[in-house]
Design goal:
Layout: H1 2-34, E1 43-46, E2 50-53, E3 62-66, E4 71-79, E5 83-88, E6 91-96, E7 100-102, E8 112-113, E9 151-155, E10 159-162, E11 171-175, E12 180-183, E13 185-188, E14 194-197, E15 207-209, E16 213-218, E17 229-234, E18 239-244, E19 247-253, E20 267-270, E21 273-274, E22 277-282, E23 291-297, E24 300-301, E25 308-312, E26 327-330, H2 331-340, E27 346-350
Parallel strand pairs: 17-27, 25-26
Antiparallel strand pairs: 1-4, 1-7, 2-3, 4-5, 5-6, 8-21, 9-12, 9-16, 10-11, 13-14, 14-15, 17-18, 18-19, 20-27, 21-24, 22-23, 24-25
């Protein structure tokens, strides 16, 4: 009788312990799932406006204010219920994990700002992720990002674009005569022939043989026109340049408004709304300029008529006007510019 009682209560105790363990695991599991852990040295971005603090507590002093979609690197953590030590372009401090998201192939920047009041009403964002794989960091090259002596040119005849100097290298595509190019760098192939690098990271490497290129004119730079980060859109040369104060940090071909009714508005503007992607439609069938484009990548609006900078997948003829007023960029360049700029960044559009 006593043994049976002991066995009975012993069995009940085991069951109770198992139940408690399962319940406890469920709570712990739910808590673990509610806060993502970020490995050391992993790239992260802010999903809301937040502040870097000097200590991993709410009462810490602010060392830097960060906008949504700011990108940094994890230096340590988690500390004190999910705080991380971070580096954002040299500024270091602590931020809560709930304000961060891992930058990986599933990462989508959050929309910012106020929707534009466009001439043609723009549809609301879909809210789904952009089907674009983030570009890997390119290998360091002392000539990358050096825009001294940069020239604008064009294809003098149709020819191939290759991944490296030399006809033995993979052909990416062909470009027709008249296609504009930027001549970022000269390079020699194994035979000693001269090629031009006609792309810039984060775009994939692209090279064209010099015999296919005609030089047009040097690229015009504006100097220290504005403080901080600002964007220059040169309509005459069809070139967009990102500046840090007076230094060009990214130069690329673009396509602005085509035709007298679609010219990109000249002036000094500021980015006031941006989102990772958006469906766009406008024009009309009668005039033959109707368009209906799905998932236009990385629009950044700077004019209330609906003009903005954005990626372009429907043409590969940058360097000549093509748009209804927006500034068309290659998709990799628009992604880079989206990560570099922010709400309030100046956009200077001029001839």
């Amino acid at each position: 009788m006593f043994r049976k009682s002991i066995q009975k209560y012993y069995g009940i105790g085991i069951i109770a312990l198992l139940v408690a363990a399962i319940v406890g695991w469920g709570v712990t599991g739910a808590r673990a799932q509610s806060q993502q852990r970020f490995p050391l040295s992993s790239p992260v971005a802010t999903n809301v406006k937040t502040s870097l603090l000097d200590q991993p507590v709410e009462s810490g002093a602010v060392t830097k204010s960060l906008p949504a979609n700011a990108r940094g690197i994890v230096l340590g953590g988690p500390f004190n219920e999910g705080w991380y030590w971070l580096d954002f372009s040299g500024s270091r401090g602590y931020a809560p994990g709930k304000s961060l998201v891992l930058v990986d192939d599933k990462y989508t920047p959050v929309p910012e700002g106020t929707p534009p009041a466009a001439k043609t009403p723009l549809p609301a964002p879909t809210g789904t992720s952009v089907p674009i794989t983030p570009t890997a960091t390119p290998a360091l090259d002392p000539l990358l990002g050096n825009y001294t002596g940069l020239w604008l040119g064009e294809m003098s005849s149709a020819g191939n674009v290759r991944v490296a100097p030399g006809t033995e290298n993979t052909r990416l595509k062909g470009w027709p005569a008249g296609r504009r190019v930027l001549l970022y760098q000269e390079a020699k192939d194994s035979k000693g022939d001269t090629w031009y690098r006609v792309s810039e990271p984060p775009e994939e490497p692209m090279y064209v043989h010099s015999s296919l290129i005609k030089k047009l004119e040097p690229v015009k730079f504006e100097g220290a026109k504005y403080k901080g980060r600002w964007i220059n859109v040169n309509i005459s040369q069809q070139i967009t340049t990102a500046y840090e104060d007076g230094k060009p940090v990214k130069v690329t071909l673009c396509s602005t408004g085509k035709g007298k009714d679609n010219l990109t508005e000249l002036g000094v503007w500021k980015i006031y709304w941006r989102l990772p992607k958006q469906d766009m439609s406008g024009g009309n069938l009668a005039s033959g300029d109707f368009y209906d484009l799905k998932d236009v990548p990385y629009p950044q609006y700077f004019h209330t008529s609906g003009e903005g900078l954005h990626g372009t997948y429907w043409h590969d003829d940058f360097g000549r006007p093509h748009s209804h007023g927006c500034v068309n960029l290659s998709t990799p360049m628009s992604e880079w510019l989206y990560g570099w700029a922010s709400i309030g960044t100046i956009v200077y559009v001029h001839n």
